[in-house]
Amino acid sequence: LAQDCASRKGQACSLKELEELRIEFLGRKGKLAQIMGRLGKLDNADKPAAGKKANEVKQAVTDLLDSWEAALQSAEADQALSRFDPSMPGRKPWAGSLHPVTLVMEEIASILVGLGFDHVAGPEVENDWHNFEALNMPPDHPARDMQDTLYVSDKIVLRTHTSGMQIRSMLAGKPPLAVIAPGKVYRRDSDLTHTPMFHQIEGLLVDRNVSMGDLRGTLTVFVRKVFGPKTEVRFRPSFFPFTEPSAEVDISCAVCGGKGELDGKPCRVCKGTGWVEILGCGMIDPNVFKSVGYDPEVYTGFAFGLGVERVAMLKYGIDDLRMFFENDVRFLEQFA
Ligand code: PHE
């Protein structure tokens, strides 16, 4: 083994083989120890010279093994270096990214700002008057049951919708008005398709001679900017206390292309109908104008409220609302 290692200049000798050699020559029962053991039997006169020689041999063997080991280690390092390609692009550290709800909210807001709406923000802790009463929902109005309210105290609620911002905006300004108010809303509701907190974007436009046609046109343009020019839009009659007439807007499902099925199965997002509801809207009810001191004989307007998570689910083909709130990095990093 020693000869073999020597002939290969230590290069092909493994570290394990070197260790075996070290034990064979320098170990407690190794060759050198045996020779040292016999020194005692020599004539006293010969002992110093023989002892000196034995130590020299030990040092020489040690040096040889050490140099082989160093050569071996540097050969291994060279090999590792030859596998290293300094021209490879570096790996970027994960630096976080915007949440898909934020991305969609910013995209929608920028489209509506492009259409001339101003961006406003208001409180999530709201009083009963802005959230309900001024929106044509007096204290015992049955429509209050449409929304499961989280109460902070008797007259203070976590806003159940962003519609209170219609009131705040009309009180803060005067027509012509065009505002959007994105933000968090809260409801006592939690199941597969509802979370106690979610996001809405409110839109409000007030001027003279605003018609249902303006509402339809604005929302159709808006929806096609978000989901693509081929998106179909459907207005269904509905009811909200603060709009008259009211409508809910469905769009053709962006996940299955409105076909209702995906790979031979009912589409998981639109449940096979080909349509998904994305917002509620309508013409401002005269009673709402009265509560902010606007003359309903002079002004007309429209409002709409849109669910941001719903839009994000459609846009990205996500079928489980909980994904947005679990904050699993494997989910979030896909939106980087
Ligand atoms: N605020 C309503 C909701 O939360 C949506 C809506 C807004 C409807 C504006 C009409 C006008 O469901």
Automatic annotation (TrEMBL):
InterPro entries named in the record: aa-tRNA-synth_II, aa-tRNA-synth_II/BPL/LPL, Phe-tRNA-synth_IIc_asu, Phe-tRNA_ligase_II_N, Phe_tRNA_ligase_alpha1_bac, Phenylalanyl-tRNA_Synthase, tRNA-bd_arm
Subcellular location: Cytoplasm
Repeat listed as a keyword: no
Residues the record lists as binding Mg(2+): E244
Main localization of the protein described in the UniProt heading: cytoplasm
Residue ranges of coiled coil: none
Cofactor (UniProt): Mg(2+)
SUPFAM superfamilies on file: Class II aaRS and biotin synthetases, tRNA-binding arm
Catalyzed reactions: tRNA(Phe) + L-phenylalanine + ATP = L-phenylalanyl-tRNA(Phe) + AMP + diphosphate + H(+)
PANTHER family: PHENYLALANINE--TRNA LIGASE, MITOCHONDRIAL, PHENYLALANYL-TRNA SYNTHETASE
Protein name: Phenylalanine--tRNA ligase alpha subunit
Species the sequence originates in: Pseudodesulfovibrio mercurii
Lineage: Bacteria, Pseudomonadati, Thermodesulfobacteriota, Desulfovibrionia, Desulfovibrionales
Originating gene: pheS
